[in-house]
């Protein structure tokens, strides 16, 4: 029996146009009506995750920033796990050395040095899902986030690092140069207090080693007195693996890389074809027939 479902956003719950399909919404509501808790598990900051979910009228809890934050359905912070101060300058130095763009995740805000850095991030996410990105639509979405203050553009990270060094949840590195990313990843992996993952081939997601989706989901399930055998996770990329390894039912999206699919118990449809809904309906139908 499944009592808790964790769902990734980009490439999973969200369609290629970054909306939530009617089928996905309906299935989430059906699961909730049957007493199953549904939680978002994403690399996005809280506001980046909350806006598209709230706009569709869904009432969910959130595991954000790859597990660095857990928030309830009203947005209240339950737990937060920051990067260690001594690691932050090491990470930024490694990324800058290899000409990898940085973004800093602090509380509900993402700091970047240009709008283009954010645009490139979402282009890479679309490409990771084997989609052709609509660059103009992505630009409009990022500009809207900047207007709302969800994303803040700064000339230098130095004042941010000086004033908020103890508050950084995640550093996201993005580049179209895969070789530079691989070299940086190898260097970052030598720092034992870090967790290095990615939500696409063009990025590195760097958090505290204790800030991972799987760790946060395990803690949430424990707080709800739900065994991990009764948890399902649905995702499409490497930052979802820590969930997949811990849950009783792991589901890879049809658009996920083959290595992710091989690591999961089940493979559902793509995010273009309501893959989340299909995965949830299989569980609901199985549990209703018992």
Automatic annotation (TrEMBL):
Q: Name one GO cellular component term.
A: cytosol
Annotated signal peptide: none
Q: Which PROSITE patterns match?
A: COF_1, COF_2
- Sorted alphabetically, which InterPro entries does this protein's record hold? Cof (IPR000150), HAD-like_sf (IPR036412), HAD-SF_hydro_IIB (IPR006379), HAD_sf (IPR023214)
Q: Name one GO molecular function term.
A: magnesium ion binding
Q: What name does this protein carry? A: Hydrolase
Tell me what organism the protein belongs to: Sporosarcina ureilytica
Source organism lineage? Bacteria, Bacillati, Bacillota, Bacilli, Bacillales
């Amino acid at each position: 029996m499944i009592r808790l479902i964790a769902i990734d956003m980009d490439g999973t719950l969200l369609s290629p146009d970054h909306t939530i399909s009617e089928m996905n919404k309906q299935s989430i509501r059906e699961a909730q009506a049957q007493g199953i808790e549904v939680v978002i598990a994403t690399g996005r900051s809280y506001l980046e995750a909350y806006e598209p979910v709230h706009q569709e009228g869904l009432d969910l809890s959130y595991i954000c920033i790859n597990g660095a934050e857990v928030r309830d359905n009203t947005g209240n912070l339950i737990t937060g796990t920051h990067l260690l101060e001594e690691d932050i300058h090491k990470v930024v130095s490694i990324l800058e050395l290899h000409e990898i763009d940085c973004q800093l995740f602090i509380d509900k805000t993402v700091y970047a040095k240009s709008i283009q850095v954010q645009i490139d991030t979402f282009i890479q996410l679309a490409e990771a899902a084997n989609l052709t990105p609509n660059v103009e639509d992505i630009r409009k979405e990022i500009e809207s986030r900047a207007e709302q203050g969800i994303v803040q553009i700064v000339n230098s990270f130095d004042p941010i690092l000086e004033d908020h060094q103890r508050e950084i949840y995640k550093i996201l590195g993005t580049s179209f140069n895969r070789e530079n990313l691989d070299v940086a990843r190898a260097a970052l992996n030598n720092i034992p207090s870090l967790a290095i993952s990615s939500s696409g081939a063009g990025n590195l997601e760097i958090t505290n080693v204790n800030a991972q989706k799987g760790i946060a989901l395990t803690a949430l399930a424990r707080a709800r007195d739900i065994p991990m055998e009764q948890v399902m996770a649905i995702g499409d990329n490497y930052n979802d693996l820590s969930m997949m390894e811990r849950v009783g039912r792991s589901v890879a999206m049809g658009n996920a890389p083959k290595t992710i699919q091989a690591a999961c118990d089940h493979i559902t449809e793509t995010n273009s074809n309501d893959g989340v809904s299909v995965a949830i309906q299989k569980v609901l139908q199985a549990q209703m027939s018992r």
